[in-house]
# Entry
Amino acid sequence: MQVKVTSRHGTVRQDAHDHIVSKAEKLLTYFERVTQVEIIVDFQHESARVEVLVDAEHKHDFVASDEHAEVTAAFDSALHKVEQQIRKYKEKVQNHRGETSMSGE
# Structure
């Protein structure tokens, strides 16, 4: 899995960059078909807007964003939103398969 961090109108500190990459890599524990995670940090006046784009095999992208004064706080919140989307998608797929096999019996 590839993790890409991009920043606009500023730079991400190294400790924040490391935090972002390590947390993004944990998305594989939720969904093993994640192929790429792209994090875009956009520095605006006194806040940072973080957008998380997750590419997965056989599925459209998962997208979430949040804005906060701290980059890591905005990232953590956006990541939480993506995790919820992935869990909901996995649950939907697993329930769909379960219902299909039950009706086939």
Notes: Helices lie at 14-25, 27-30, 71-103. Strands lie at 2-8, 34-44, 47-56, 59-68. Residues 2-103 form a domain with the Double Stranded RNA Binding Domain fold (CATH 3.30.160.100). The chain has a mean pLDDT of 87.
